[in-house]
């Protein structure tokens, strides 16, 4: 491959970092942390959706930045968000689209480092309770499992159903989490379909428990469902927190980007050694099969793609009447300043 495109990319990133330093003088040189103890909320930490967070935590990258991060795990992203809104957590590791929902209600939160560039969510139909499934219309009146009502798994389900004319009220959404409880809910017949993340969905798929009908675990699948790049897991916080704590925010972004850099070259054995044993759900081979499937969905550098927020807004506004596209300021949803500087530090 000719070297010039790479050189141009490096120049572009360097220029962007310089521009960020001008726009935000506090980022020119990272000074003393305004806040060294951080409480973080996450919804379903064992899912691959949040693998970069787990890697950064397990490998000590937060501590390397001078941070003590206490992570509270909830059943889904919507519940994690409630912890931040309620003041019991400073930062949320959650889905990018929550920043849109919040802004539509007059609450300004901002994503400052991306973990996933695809939602990594698949929708599967239970072969036990719906063996004769033919179309989405068959889901009317049925029970659909999601990590938690209002979470990104719920959002993807709403989007796919809306294209078949099915409204959220036409089905029953049931929170099942993102780990062993989700497997049990589907296999026992408590739900008829499920919108969830890996490793859960790959495990159900490979054991013949579900038939996948929509899949955003790959970049191509994400393009098929959303029509463009869709930013997924990220660290986001109230805009006021970011403005008051730029050095702390930078340290958090550094830790995540450090984890993303490690993931670029990590092998299956490295992943198994690093994540907690409970995350494997009792099947190492299937866990690694799941990792292979979603690997390209992990962000390589923590940057939100320029077209991503537009894709997310278009998706949300297509089925949620409370989200008015013309009233959302896309520029306030995210900043790449912190991830750019972290990328310079770790050559990500």
From TrEMBL:
InterPro entries: SsuA/THI5. It is found in: Periplasm. Residues 49-263 form the SsuA/THI5-like domain. GO terms for biological process: alkanesulfonate transmembrane transport. One of its GO terms (cellular component) is periplasmic space. It holds the Pfam family NMT1. Its main location: periplasm. The keyword Signal applies. Keywords: Signal. Belongs to the bacterial solute-binding protein SsuA/TauA family. This is ABC transporter substrate-binding protein. It comes from Rhodoferax koreensis.
């Amino acid at each position: 491959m000719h070297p010039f495109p790479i050189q141009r990319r490096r120049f572009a990133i360097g220029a962007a970092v310089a521009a960020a330093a001008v726009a935000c003088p506090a980022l020119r040189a990272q000074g003393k942390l305004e806040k060294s103890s951080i409480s973080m909320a996450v919804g379903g930490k064992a899912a691959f959706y949040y693998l970069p967070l787990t890697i950064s935590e397990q490998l000590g990258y937060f501590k390397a930045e001078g941070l003590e991060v206490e992570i509270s795990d909830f059943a889904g992203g919507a519940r994690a968000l409630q912890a931040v809104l309620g003041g019991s957590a400073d930062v949320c590791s959650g889905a990018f689209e929550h920043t849109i929902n919040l802004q539509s209600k007059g609450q300004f939160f901002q994503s400052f480092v991306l973990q996933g560039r695809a939602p990594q969510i698949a929708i599967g139909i239970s072969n036990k309770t719906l063996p004769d499934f033919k179309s989405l219309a068959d889901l009317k009146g049925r029970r659909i499992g999601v990590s938690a009502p209002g979470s990104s798994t719920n959002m993807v389900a709403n989007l796919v159903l809306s294209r078949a004319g099915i409204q959220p009220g036409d089905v029953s959404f049931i929170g099942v989490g993102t780990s062993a409880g989700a497997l049990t809910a589907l296999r026992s017949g408590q739900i008829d379909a499920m919108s969830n993340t890996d490793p859960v969905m790959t495990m159900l798929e490979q054991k013949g428990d579900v038939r996948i009908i929509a899949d955003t675990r790959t970049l191509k699948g994400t393009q098929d469902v959303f029509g463009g790049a869709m930013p997924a897991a990220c660290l986001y916080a109230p805009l006021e927190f970011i403005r008051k704590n730029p050095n702390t925010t930078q340290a958090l972004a550094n830790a995540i980007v450090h984890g993303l850099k490690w993931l670029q070259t990590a092998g299956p054995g490295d992943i198994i050694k690093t994540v907690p044993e409970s995350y494997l759900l009792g099947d190492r081979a299937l866990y690694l099969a799941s990792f292979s499937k979603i690997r390209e969905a992990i962000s390589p550098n923590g940057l939100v793609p320029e077209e991503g927020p537009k894709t997310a807004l278009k998706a949300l506004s297509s089925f949620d009447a409370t989200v008015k596209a013309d009233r959302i300021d896309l520029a306030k949803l995210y900043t790449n300043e912190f991830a750019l500087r972290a990328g310079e530090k770790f050559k990500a």
